[in-house]
Amino acid sequence: MNLIKFIEAFPDEASCRAKFKEFRDQQGIICRKCGCTDHYWLQTIEKYQCKKCKTRTSLRSGTVMHASNLPFRPWFIALHLLTGTKKTFSALELQRQIGHKFYEPIWYMLQKIRMTMGSRDNQYPLDKIVELDEGFFESVDTDKDKDEKDEKKKRGRGSQKQSTVLVMASTVHDFKSKKKYSKPTKFRYVRMLVMDNLKSETVGKKVKENISEESVVKTDNYTSYTRIKDHVWCHIPRKVKPEEAGKILPWVHTMIANAKRTMLGVHHMVSKKYAQTYLDEFCYKVNRRYF
Questions:
Q1: How buried is residue 143: exposed, middle or buried, by Cβ count under 10 Å (0-12/13-18/19+)?
Q2: How far is the CA of 6 from the CAs of 17, 33, 84, in angstroms?
Q3: Are 238 and 219 in contact, with CB atoms under 8 Å apart?
Q4: Beta strands across the sheet bearing 216-220
Q5: What is the spatial distance between Cα 17 and Cα 213, in angstroms, rounded to a whole number?
Q6: CA–CA separation, 231 vs 219, rounded Å?
Q7: Would the CA dihedral through 223, 139, 287, 175 be positive or negative?
Q8: Can you tell me whether residue 48 is helix, strand or coil?
Q9: Diameter of the chain by CA atoms?
Q10: Half-sphere exposure of 119 (CA within 13 A, CB side)
Q11: In this structure, is the dihedral angle defined by the CA atoms of residues 34, 39, 40 and 46, taken in order, positive or negative?
């Protein structure tokens, strides 16, 4: 659905509200008090009422719009722009496009959407041939005191100005491609996880949670990857020189470069506290590029 079709389908608040109710009716309503799934729709107050205990549930309750005072149409516009475009939008730009007076509710709305994208992606484990490597993304720690600004910062790998991210790219062998400079594998899906550390126990836990046991995992020979073999069918560590990293693990480095370019070009600087939500949005878009 392009922008013109979206405007035609949702020209006003009433059309957005009606479509949202249609989605909720398809999913079903669960009473937060007794767990009953049978409800009446009270047209006069626009709420669901449980047939068993008479508890009422609003149209937004229990959804991504829960506790939001924004109208339905700004939500629909934000959802369309974030999911229907290849690039992303900053909260400030979306505020301009919607014409809202305040920045904070728009920023909060976008964060909730990005978190929902992440929770949706987490329902599907990666499989086939999975390339795995770490990336370091420029970010700022907004919770630090201003006095620490003059503190001497570490440069390069492990800097205080970077977020450590574990990047996993699911691929399959590409037997059909005959291009001279094409990669030997075909890219499928990607997942990026912000890590507190890169200890072998932490990495092994994340691999177990996010990669199927039947998968083949390809990594470099970094010592923190030694326990990956305990959680997957096959682990292939390779000794990789820095200049050959793009050839041994091509898709991981492609995704890291694309994510950095997106975050730098649109958001300029991201807080460490919310780095995961921005990466969730990037992965969500990439994973559904053909949907």
A1: exposed
A2: 14, 37, 10
A3: yes
A4: 185-195, 162-173, 129-138, 216-220, 234-238
A5: 43
A6: 14
A7: negative
A8: strand
A9: 68
A10: 8
A11: positive
Give the C-alpha separation, 79 to 90, whole Å: 13
Q: Are 111 and 103 in contact (CB under 8 A)?
A: no
Please say if the pLDDT value at position 126 is more than 60: yes
DSSP-derived 3-state class of residue 127: coil
Residue 15 in tokens: 């059309």
Decide: pTM greater than 0.85.
yes
Measured between alpha carbons, how far is residue 282 from residues 65, 134, 261 in Å?
A: 21, 16, 11
Nearest one of 220, 222, 235, 228 to 202, comparing CA atoms: 228
| The one-letter amino acid at 104 | E
Show the beta-strand stretches assigned E in 43-85.
Answer: 47-50, 56-58
Q: Which of 41-45, 146-150, 172-176 has the lowest mean pLDDT?
A: 146-150
The two tokens of residue 209 are 């949670």
Token digits for 107?
């920023």
Residues in CB range of 41: below 8 A, 6 or more apart: 47, 48, 49
Residue where the block lists tokens 């094409």:
182
Three-class SS string for 181-228?
CCCCEEEEEEEEEEECCCCHHHHHHHHHHHECCCCEEEEECCHHHCCH
Partners of 189 in the β-ladder = 170
- Which of 78-87, 90-99, 143-152, 212-221 has the least mean pLDDT? 143-152
pLDDT of residue 145: 44
Sign of CA dihedral 136, 186, 126, 232: negative
The answer to whether the CB of 167 falls within 8 A of the CB of 275 is: no
